[in-house]
Amino acid sequence: MTEIASVTAERGVPPARPARRFRPGTWAGLIPFFVFALLFLGLPIAFLAFGSIADNTTGAPTLDNYAALSTPLVVNAFQTSIEVSLVTAIVGGIFGFLLAVAVILGRLPRVLRSALMTFSGVASNFAGIPLALAFIYTLSAEGMVTHLLRGVGLNLDFKIFSKFGIEIVYLYFQFPLMVLIIAPAIDGLKPEWREAAENMGASSADYWRRVALPILTPTLLGSMILLFGNSFGAQATAYQLSAGLVPLVPLAIGNQISGDVLHNAGLGYSMAMGMVAVMGVSIVGYAWLQRRAERWLR
How many whole angstroms separate alpha carbon 230 and alpha carbon 235? Predict the structure, then answer.
């Protein structure tokens, strides 16, 4: 064995890695994670799954709740939620990416980058009812900015309590979230790649088109998928803005489970399972794109 190892080393061939042995002790540290995932992910999904196939009155197994997903009310809610999520994910992803590139690679003062990252960390978590109230007090028909503009002769024809208003409010936390997600990937662009491209006669546009963007594309698309999921599952902000008048899936689920008029818990659970399916596809897509991105970030 020693002779083979010495010959292999002389030829520059790395020795084979020893086979990994299963050691039960190495998995002991993952037990809290599995327990947490079971209690806060597995059990709630199982509760939704059983509730979605239970009759609302008798509790007997039925598929009528899933058949009701094809009704115009439910279809409209899913279409609206997907539209709002796509718009905020694409717009927030593109402008968040451009902002991160400008600050990180634009040779701006380092204090500006620190300020941007600090603001992004705060703003990405500023959501729910406080965010909705902040926009209502600022941009509604009686908001502060609206009154100031009206005083100088500008009439801000902006309806904050509409689907477009919800998209504007969602972009407030989508922008900074994109900056936080994409910043490590931008930092991962090695200076040697740009230097090699410039030595071969490539311009800055050629470098971005043929080197940087192909490398960043999996991370960029994966980040937009995360933004999509972040917007698709938001509930409190939209409810405070629209009082449930804009048909979104989280609001429709709340109306079905705890509402006084449209009370059908089984339909609400089946809609929730539809949300789980959409979020599951998003997670799988993000994981696949993240694995492709990691090849360049190692």
Answer: 10
